[in-house]
Amino acid sequence: IEQKGQAAFIPAVRVSCCLCVSGMNAAVRATVRVGLYTGAKVYFVHEGYQGLVDGGDNIRPATWESVSMMLQLGGTVIGSARCKDFRSREGRMQAACNLVELGITNLCVIGGDGSLTGANEFRTEWSGLLADLVRAGKITDEQARKSSHLNIVGMVGSIDNDFCGTDMTIGTDSALHRIIEVVDAITTTAQSHQRTFILEVMGRHCGYLALVTALACGADWVFIPEMPPDEGWENHLCRRLTDQRARGSRLNVIIVAEGAISRDGKPITSDQIKKLVTDRLGFDTRTTILGHVQRGGTPSAFDRILGSRMGVEAVMALLEATPDTPACVVSLSGNQAVRLPLMECVQVTKDVTAAMAQGRFEDAIKLRGKSFENNWNTYKQLAHINPPDVKSNINVAIMNIGAPCAGMNAAVRAAVRMGIIQGHNMLAVHDGFDGLAHGQIEPITWTSVSGWTGKGGSMLGTKRTLPAKMLEEISQNIAKHNIHALVIIGGFEAYVGGLELVQAREKYEEMCIPMVVIPATVSNNVPGSDFSIGADTALNTITSTCDRIKQSAAGTKRRVFIVETMGGYCGYLATMAGLAAGADAAYIFEDKFNIKDLEMNVEHLVEKMKTTVKRGLILRNENCNANYTTDFIFNLYSEEGKGIFDCRKNVLGHMQQGGTPTPFDRNFGTKMGAKSVMWLTEKLKQCYRHGRIFANTPDSACVLGMKKRALTFQPLAELKADTDFEHRIPKTQWWLKIRPIMKILAKYDIKLDTSEHADMEHVLKKRSLLTK
C-alpha cells in the first residue's frame, strides 16, 4: 500500500526478549493479522535478534493461517534467544543488510527494556549502517534510498511488570495466575498444620509480583526491593506473626521478591527469614521458591486481550510513523491504549534503579507509576497499621446485593479491615436488602474476614430483592443499629437499590447517611465503572472453556461451536471472551444484527473451512436477540453448513459465576473496598452537624468505579441519565470501540475506526518533579 512516500509498508514482527512470557503469541497474532489487513507484507523474525543477524530462513513471510491456534499457547511460537552478535556494530550491520534485502523498514519488537533499548540504538544508527553497507558493496544506492529510515515500535513483554510507563506488561497477569494457584494450594495445607509459609516469587529489580500477590492473598508481610523494611524489621515481623496467631489465625504467609534487600542494600533471602521465624518463634516454617513455573502455562484472558490490543496499536503506530517520529512503546494506562516515547520509558525505568541505589525509596515507589503506588499504599494501610485504641463511634454497615460473583469477599474484607483501622465499628448485613429490612445485622471483626480474598461467591449472603417495598423496615433498622454509613457491593441491583434509598431520603431521614456502591457482577453492566469485580474471573472461565471446546475438534476438523455466555443484555463477556479465545463472531444486544449478518457469518465459515483452519467458534450473549436464540443460530448453522461443517452448542450457565477469584479480581476488590471506606470516613466528617450525621446532597451517595485511568466517585443521581434501565446497561460502554478488532482478527473485511487513536504522551514530567 502507498504510505508516506514508501512503495510498501513491510513490518517484521520479532520477539527479542531473552525470556519469553505468556501472552506474546496474542501480540504476534494481532500484529500479523492487522498488518495483513492493512495490505502490508509481514515477516516473522525467528529467534529474536539472533535471527535478525543470521537472516536466511530465520526471516520468513507470515500468513493469516500461520498465526492460527496460538492464542492459548504460552511462550512464543517464533522463538526467542539471547544474542551477543547484535551488541556489536558488525552484527547490527549484518541485521540491517538482511532487512534491506527484504525491503523491511518497520520493526515491531516485543521484549523487555534491554531489547527495546537495543532496537532504539539500531534505529539511531540506521543511516550510518546503510552508508557502511553501500561502501562495502553489500547493498546498492537504490536499496539504501528505498530503506532510508527504520521505524520502531515496542511492546513490553515481562512478567516482572518492571517497565515504567505502563500499568501492566504482557505476561504479568498470567504469572500472577500461576502464583495465586500455588498460594491457594499452600494455604490449605498451612491451615491444616498451623504453619508459616514463605513464598519467593520472581522480581530481581521490581517487586510488583510480590506486592500484588501479598494484596491478593492477604499476606502477613511482603519484602520488595523498592521499599526495604525499616531497621529492626526482624522484631516487627516476629511480633506481627505472633499477634496473628493470638487472634486465632492458623497460618502465616510471607511473600518475598527474589531481589528483596535491607536498608543497607544487603539481600534478604527466604532462607534467612525461615531461620529467623524458626529460631525466635519456634513456628513450623516451610519455604517455596516458585522459579520458572511463573513464566509458563496458558495465558490469562487479560494477557490475550492486552497482547491483541497492543498488537493492533503497534501496527497503527508504524502506519502513522514519519522519519521524525521517535521510537515508541505501546502501553496500557487504566483501560486506555497509549503511546509513549520508548527512551523516556527506559530512562524512568533506569531512574527507579538509581533511586533504589541511592536509598530514595519513596521516589522509587512513585517512579514505578500510579498503579504500583496505589498497590503499595493499600497494602500498607491494610497490613502495617494496628487498629487504633480510640474509637470513632461510627457504625458502618456492609452488604452484598444481586447475584454472587468472585471477588465480592475480597472487597468486604478490605472494607471491614480499613474501617477497623479508622476506628469504626463494622456491621455485616446478611442477605442483602432483605437482611437490612429484617434485622440480619451483626458486628464483623478483623479475624472474621481472614482468608476471604480467595473465596468465591458471597460469604455475607446476597439476594436480588430491591428495597422499594421495604423502606419503612429498612429505616427502622438503620435507626435501631445506629448505622452511620453504608457500603453496597453488587451488580445492577446494588446501583438501583442505592438510587431507591437516595430517593427515599425525602421521606425517611434515616436514609440521610453517606452511601457508596461498589460494582461487583460478572455482567460488567453497572453505570459509572468500566470494570466490575467478578467480570475478570468469569472471562477467564469462558476463555478456558472455549480453549477446551476448540481443542476437542482438533481430531475431527470441520466443526463449528456455538457457545452461550451470561451477561444479561450486556455484551461485555461475549465480546472480550471472543477476543481472548479467537472467536469468529460474537452476537450481542448492543451491536444489532439481522438474518443477512447471520448469512454472512455462515458464508465466512464456509470459506474458512477451505483453509487449513477447519474449526469455528461463535459466541452468543444470552439476551442478544429474543428471536435469534442459541437454538435458532445452532439450527441455522447446522442447516447451512451441511456437508461442509457440523455444529455443536454449549450453554455455559452458572459456572461463569463460580470459582476462585482471579488475581485481578482479588486486587481490584481489595483496592475498591479500602478506597470506599476511606471516602466514607471523609464524607462522614463533612456531614457531621450538631452532634449527628446528616447527608442529603447528591455527592453523598456515589458509585466507586474505574473510569479510563482512575478510580472515581460519581453521584448515583447523576448516572441516571447514562442508564438504560429497561435493559440494565449503561448507555455508553468503552469496550464497544474495540469490537472491530475481534472482527478484523477473524478476517472480516470491515473498517477499523482510528479516530480515537492513541497520541504520543510523555512520562518525564513526573520524573522531573521528583528529581528537582
From TrEMBL:
SUPFAM superfamilies: Phosphofructokinase. It is an enzyme of class 2 (transferase). Substrate binds at residues 158-160, 195, 202-204, 258, 286, 292-295. Pfam families: PFK. Pathway: Carbohydrate degradation; glycolysis; D-glyceraldehyde 3-phosphate and glycerone phosphate from D-glucose: step 3/4. Beta-D-fructose 2,6-bisphosphate binds at residues 464, 521-525, 559, 566-568, 622, 648, 654-657, 728. Mg(2+) binds at residue 113. The keyword Cell wall biogenesis/degradation does not apply. GO terms for biological process: canonical glycolysis; fructose 1,6-bisphosphate metabolic process; fructose 6-phosphate metabolic process. GO terms for cellular component: 6-phosphofructokinase complex; membrane. Its cofactor is Mg(2+). InterPro entries: 6-Pfructokinase_euk, ATP_PFK, PFK_vert-type, Phosphofructokinase_CS, Phosphofructokinase_dom, PKF_sf. Keywords: Acetylation, Allosteric enzyme, ATP-binding, Cytoplasm, Glycolysis, Glycoprotein, Hydroxylation, Kinase, Magnesium, Metal-binding, Nucleotide-binding, Phosphoprotein, Transferase. Homo- and heterotetramers. Belongs to the phosphofructokinase type A (PFKA) family. ATP-dependent PFK group I subfamily. Eukaryotic two domain clade 'E' sub-subfamily. Belongs to the phosphofructokinase type A (PFKA) family. ATP-dependent PFK group I subfamily. Eukaryotic two domain clade "E" sub-subfamily. This is ATP-dependent 6-phosphofructokinase.
